[in-house]
Amino acid sequence: MVRSYTDQPVPPESIERILDAAVRAPSAGFSQGQRFIVVTDSDMRGAIAEAAGESDFVARGFNRWLSRAPVHIVICVDTQAYLGRYAESDKSGTDSWDVPYWWIDAGASLMAILYGAVDEGLAAGFLGGHAFTGLHSLLCIPGRIDIVGVVTIGHSAPDQRPRSLQKGRLPRDETVHHDHW
User: Fold this and answer.
1) What is the DSSP letter of 114?
2) pLDDT tens digits for 61-88?
């Protein structure tokens, strides 16, 4: 995850290839409830950054992140697409779901976007929808649509690493088990 970008623009054809990957991500029952808003307008990106409290982030000593990223992809889900699909005769409803699969599908789309960015030689970061105030209104998103978060995409610039990342990844033998725990 990248939190600092250069001012170099992202080619529109790169954005389209990344979106192609996002819309082809799996969806439960082929519900296809993932929705995306692509934001490249600098004023709108600034407004999104303001909605996330970027000034507080900067006040804590970090670089401007959201406002500097040349591309934002807002990942959303249309829950009704799943409820409607799983009400059809070939499905068993959603009552038995331990996890609402629209969140799983949004995660699959997120991963497709992140890998798509890397394939294009770009960097990406993610900020969850919980961090934003007023994003529905700002982007004219219908109330029935849930916002998962915003992916930032651009060319990576040097950044200061948060303390939590300075320790590195856990060793593989602490996270991967074979045949049993």
Assistant:
1) H
2) 888 889 999 999 999 999 999 999 999 9
